[in-house]
């Protein structure tokens, strides 16, 4: 076995073990509490450190596997052309330089923490565990250099970016033209293939450096992030979603919805809307729904006589439904960034989320009454059998909500229970996933996504910190107040703003970047923070479909081999219908807040 293969196996193994331990720790506290208060001493601190390891180790492996979010336009250059090779070197050179600076900044943070002398309950100094940050970032920088080219000359050029980046620190802080030239360089590199986290971290460090503030201010923000008590729910729910997505859960859910709605005219369209919403709930709107379910439900629609355009539009729209339901990941992320209780967001999102599903399904019934060839006779036996067959998947949201809302478990403990439940069910009950042969690969893929998301979140927090320090939200608030006086007009402007930017930015980026700008505006115009969160997420749900660059449009065009320009007209009816639902959610706060008031939240 080569050194490279051995290194991969060690990295993969450590990441999988970290995920499993992160699942185990909260469960010990949750189960031990009613049994005399048994718990693991310092488990919260251990979980924070595990989350740190998942972020940086997963992010490093994401570099190795080229799984970081990118906005690459390099595909406009012909494969193998000189221009394509040059832009690849440029993008990776900037990524290597930024990661090298992050390595230096994070090492400074670790050394500062060393002075505090904090020690984990097992006797290990906290700073030793935190060394995963500079070590992972340094290895990521080297991997960007290696991936810059298939030739040593290209790799040498990318490597030269590292000392050049450090050389900037010997010069006076950039200002004016030199500052903007560096910002443009970082942004161009992002457009040409550098990960989005590189762009955010690079611009953040440039902004701090231009103010003569140490660049360690960017990695220092990680500690404010890691200290969030709900952050560990992100890797736990991601693991749960990946386990369910890799099993035969989709087939069981399709059978369930077919048994319940197949007798209706248009019932197959209701089936697709329902199963897509539930699957998106598990997988967090990361696009897995279209990829995993598209090949299953699209042929069903066509076989039943639905038009091709409608079928494509429904599957594309269905990939964003369910974003507001528990245990959806974007809700947790918004909760962390906006400091809004996740349980209240989940409760507030139930009725609005159902509204969007019902509106989509209703349009499906309207089309199905004219197009569907036949309906199946309703059978109580099949309905009960299908419900029993899908009982494990259907119970996951109920498990999370039940444990959390009842007060028996915190959000992190409920998320750990969902992850453990999914693993046990799919490995040992349904046996869709082999516990030794398949499960490590499933958890690894989930861990890579976790690393990519958390590293993006950590980098963006540094940029957000500068924006807050520079009072950008206050300046934006002043501009809006000068031109908008009515809360109703503000909400309409907010919808347009979120819809457009939500279609351009990937959902996690949109939450991280836009939330700190939007929340102060909502407070100023008297919008309830929880209602604002539902409006925000509902608009992002709609942004998945918004031409020309909504994420679901690209995924659907790729999955079904359809030109994206042709797909635009197929999603317009769903865009209009769901847009009406978003407006109703926006201007009828009772849809979001009614259930909270009913439960006394």
Could you give the order of the helices and strands? HHHHHHHHHHHHHHHHHHHHHHHHHHH
Poorly predicted runs are none
* Total beta strands: 0
| Helix-strand makeup class | mainly alpha
What percent of the residues sit in helical stretches (DSSP H or I)? over 70%
Shape descriptor: globular
Q: What is the mean pLDDT?
A: 83
Kindly provide the radius of gyration, computed on alpha-carbon positions and rounded to a whole number of angstroms: 24 Å
- First-residue to last-residue Cα separation: 58 Å
Largest sheet: none
Could you describe the 3D structure shown?
The chain has 601 residues and is mainly α. Helix content is 76%, strand content 0%. The N and C termini lie far apart (58 Å).
Summarize the structure.
This protein is mainly α. The chain contains 27 helices and no strands. Helix 21 (472-483) packs across helix 23 (507-524).
Topology (SSEs and partners):
Blueprint: H1 3-32, H2 43-64, H3 82-116, H4 126-130, H5 132-147, H6 152-167, H7 176-191, H8 196-210, H9 217-226, H10 233-246, H11 249-261, H12 267-283, H13 288-303, H14 308-318, H15 329-338, H16 342-371, H17 380-389, H18 391-405, H19 411-429, H20 439-469, H21 472-483, H22 487-504, H23 507-524, H24 529-543, H25 551-560, H26 564-587, H27 590-598
Helix pairs in contact: 1-2, 1-19, 1-20, 2-5, 2-20, 3-5, 3-6, 3-7, 3-8, 3-9, 5-6, 7-8, 8-20, 9-20, 10-12, 10-19, 10-20, 11-12, 11-17, 12-13, 12-14, 12-16, 13-14, 13-25, 14-16, 14-25, 14-26, 15-23, 16-24, 16-26, 16-27, 18-19, 20-23, 21-23, 22-23, 22-24, 22-26, 23-24, 24-26
């Amino acid at each position: 076995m080569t050194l490279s293969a051995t290194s991969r196996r060690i990295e993969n193994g450590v990441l999988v073990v970290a995920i499993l331990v992160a699942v185990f720790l909260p469960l010990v506290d949750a189960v031990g509490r009613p049994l005399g208060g048994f718990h693991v001493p310092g488990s919260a601190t251990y979980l924070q450190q595990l989350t740190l390891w998942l972020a940086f180790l997963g992010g490093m492996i994401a570099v190795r596997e080229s799984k970081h979010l990118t906005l690459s336009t390099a595909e406009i250059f012909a494969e193998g052309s000189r221009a394509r090779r040059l832009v690849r070197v440029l993008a990776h050179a900037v990524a290597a330089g930024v990661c090298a600076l992050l390595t230096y900044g994070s090492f400074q943070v670790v050394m500062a923490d060393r002075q505090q002398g904090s020690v984990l309950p097992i006797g290990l100094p906290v700073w030793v565990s935190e060394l995963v940050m500079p070590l992972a970032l340094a290895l990521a920088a080297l991997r960007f250099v290696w991936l810059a080219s298939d030739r040593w000359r290209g790799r040498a050029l990318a490597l030269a970016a590292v000392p050049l980046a450090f050389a900037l620190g010997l010069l006076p802080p950039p200002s004016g033209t030199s500052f903007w030239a560096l910002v443009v360089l970082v942004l161009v590199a992002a457009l040409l293939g550098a990960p989005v986290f590189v762009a955010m971290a690079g611009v953040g460090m440039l902004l701090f450096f231009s103010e003569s503030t140490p660049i360690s201010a960017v990695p220092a923000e990680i500690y404010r992030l890691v200290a969030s008590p709900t952050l560990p729910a992100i890797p736990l729910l991601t693991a749960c979603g990946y386990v369910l997505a890799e099993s035969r859960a989709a087939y069981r859910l399709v059978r369930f919805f077919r048994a319940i709605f197949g007798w209706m005219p248009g019932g197959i369209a209701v089936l697709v809307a329902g199963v897509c919403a539930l699957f998106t709930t598990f997988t967090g709107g990361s696009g897995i729904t279209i990829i995993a379910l598209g090949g299953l439900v699209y042929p069903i629609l066509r076989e039943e006589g639905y038009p091709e355009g409608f079928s494509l539009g429904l599957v594309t729209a269905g990939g964003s439904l369910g974003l507001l339901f528990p245990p959806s990941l974007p809700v947790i992320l918004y909760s962390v960034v906006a400091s809004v209780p996740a349980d209240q967001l989940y409760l507030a999102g139930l009725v609005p989320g159902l509204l969007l599903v019902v509106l989509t399904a209703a349009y499906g019934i309207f089309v199905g009454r004219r197009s569907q060839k036949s309906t199946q006779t309703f059978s109580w036996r099949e309905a009960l059998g299908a419900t029993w067959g899908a009982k494990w998947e259907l119970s996951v949201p109920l498990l999370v909500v039940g444990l959390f809302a009842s007060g028996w478990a915190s959000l992190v403990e409920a998320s750990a229970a969902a992850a453990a439940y999914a693993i046990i069910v799919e490995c040992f009950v349904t046996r869709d996933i082999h516990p030794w042969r398949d499960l490590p690969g499933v958890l690894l893929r989930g861990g890579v996504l976790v690393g990519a998301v958390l590293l993006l979140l950590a980098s963006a927090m540094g940029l957000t910190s500068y924006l807050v320090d520079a009072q950008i939200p206050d300046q934006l608030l002043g501009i809006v107040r000068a031109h908008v006086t009515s809360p109703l007009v503000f909400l309409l402007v907010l919808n347009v703003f979120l819809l457009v930017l939500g279609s351009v930015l990937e959902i996690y980026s949109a939450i991280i970047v836009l939330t700190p700008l939007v929340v102060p505006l909502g407070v100023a115009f008297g919008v309830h923070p929880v209602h604002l969160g539902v409006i925000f997420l509902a608009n992002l749900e709609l942004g998945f479909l918004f031409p020309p660059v909504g994420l679901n449009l690209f995924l659907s065009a790729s999955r079904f081999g359809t030109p994206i320009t042709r797909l635009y007209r197929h999603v317009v009816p769903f865009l209009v219908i769901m847009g009406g639902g978003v407006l109703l959610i926006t201007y009828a706060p009772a849809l979001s807040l009614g259930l909270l008031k009913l439960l006394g939240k």
